[in-house]
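Inverse folding, one chain.
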């Protein structure tokens, strides 16, 4: 079909585009976290006090902002494609962002608990 109608709906090419936007945005969240943060294990192991926890939370915020700039940019660029594919970068980023924020907050909380996994330096 001419005029881009082949992308309408989530069947055919529209579904493939939605899948790529969904996966790409979710993967970008992981990429942003790995670029600005240590792993959750390292965060749990080496976050020894409230000042370090504050610093770790700041980097979590950086990762969220970086990844959401891209997710929203992708949604904006896909806004004119029929079938609502613009929503998929937002959904993909949201799922992974919620998980990563929960994971790092858990690591920070565990680091300061008695009997936690701190390195003891």
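Residues assigned per position:
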């Amino acid at each position: 079909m001419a005029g881009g109608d082949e992308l309408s709906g989530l069947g055919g090419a529209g579904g493939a585009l939605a899948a790529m936007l969904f996966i790409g945005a979710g993967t970008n969240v992981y990429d942003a976290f790995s670029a600005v943060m240590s792993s959750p294990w390292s965060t749990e192991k080496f976050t020894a006090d409230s000042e370090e926890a504050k610093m770790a939370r700041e980097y979590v915020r950086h990762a969220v902002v970086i990844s959401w700039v891209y997710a929203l940019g992708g949604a904006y660029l896909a806004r004119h494609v029929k079938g609502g594919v613009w929503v998929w970068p937002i959904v993909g980023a949201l799922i992974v962002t919620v998980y990563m924020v929960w994971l790092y907050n858990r690591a920070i909380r565990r680091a300061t608990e008695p009997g936690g996994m701190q390195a003891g330096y």
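The first helix runs from residue 13 to 36. The CA atoms of residues 46 and 121 lie 9 Å apart.
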